[in-house]
Write a structure and sequence with these properties.
Layout: E1 6-16, E2 19-28, E3 33-38, H1 48-59, E4 63-67, H2 72-81, H3 88-104, E5 112-118, H4 120-131, E6 136-142, E7 160-165, H5 169-181, E8 186-191, H6 203-219
Parallel strand pairs: 3-4, 3-5, 5-6, 6-7, 7-8
Antiparallel strand pairs: 1-2, 2-4
Helix pairs in contact: 1-6, 3-4
């Protein structure tokens, strides 16, 4: 889909646990699914990697919401202490608030929801998907830490794709262990030659291609029940 067919792009503010979270909501014309991004350790909605993937997903017709899970004040504190970025329960509660906002927002209330999680954000996405099982239709993890959601993994019902760089050896093993615990439709894809941040030429493009295919398969209105 040509980005010029974008019909709506806006900064949104979402209340959550006494804070106000900011997000960028972009909706291509004709979209019926929205991908909510859960950012990783020390990152934000301005992550260039996630913004690239979001752009590619919009070209495929998906709406995207890149939302900060920390308020600006919390981000300043976390930049010094790093205590919130690994608090998976806290991040999951924030992600649930954003998910509920999407379900209540007039524009997106009928949209199917997918999660795209990176690093620790992937763990938060998996925990949130258990809490909002009826709302979340598919999950993609990029260089994720699903091991941090270990207790939630057997309870996940959304089809889950784990993408890891071929040179991210420690994270590969973490994802293999998590894959064994998942009981939903699942797949682990290792991108050859890629490191944790997928900075190598073509690596992020491959992540976006894989994510788009997964979401198309499991969120598409035309999908036949499997």
């Amino acid at each position: 889909m040509n980005p010029k067919t974008m019909e709506k792009s806006q900064l949104v503010r979402i209340p959550s646990q006494g804070a106000v979270l900011e997000g960028d909501l972009d909706i291509p014309s004709g979209a019926g699914q929205v991908i909510l991004f859960a950012h990783g350790s020390g990152s934000s909605r301005f992550s260039p990697r996630n913004r690239f993937v979001a752009q590619e997903l919009r070209k495929a017709g998906f709406a995207t919401l890149l939302a900060d899970l920390l308020s600006p004040e919390e981000e300043q504190i976390d930049s010094r202490t790093a205590h919130l970025r690994f608090d998976i329960g806290f991040l999951a509660r924030r992600l649930i608030s954003v998910t509920d906002w999407l379900r209540e927002n007039e524009t997106t209330s009928n949209f199917k929801i997918g999660y795209f999680g990176a690093s620790t954000g992937a763990a938060a996405a998996l925990v949130s998907a258990v809490k909002r099982r009826e709302a979340v239709g598919a999950i993609v993890s990029r260089g994720g830490r699903p091991d941090l959601a270990e207790e939630a993994l057997p309870l996940v019902r959304a089809p889950t794709l784990l993408i890891v760089g071929g040179n991210d050896f420690e994270v590969i093993e973490m994802n293999r262990a998590a894959l064994d615990l998942l009981e939903s439709k699942k797949e682990l894809v290792i991108v050859p030659g890629a490191t944790h941040l997928f900075e190598e030429p073509g690596a992020l493009e491959e992540v976006a291609r894989l994510a788009s295919g997964w979401f198309t398969r499991y969120l598409s209105k035309k999908r036949i029940n499997e």
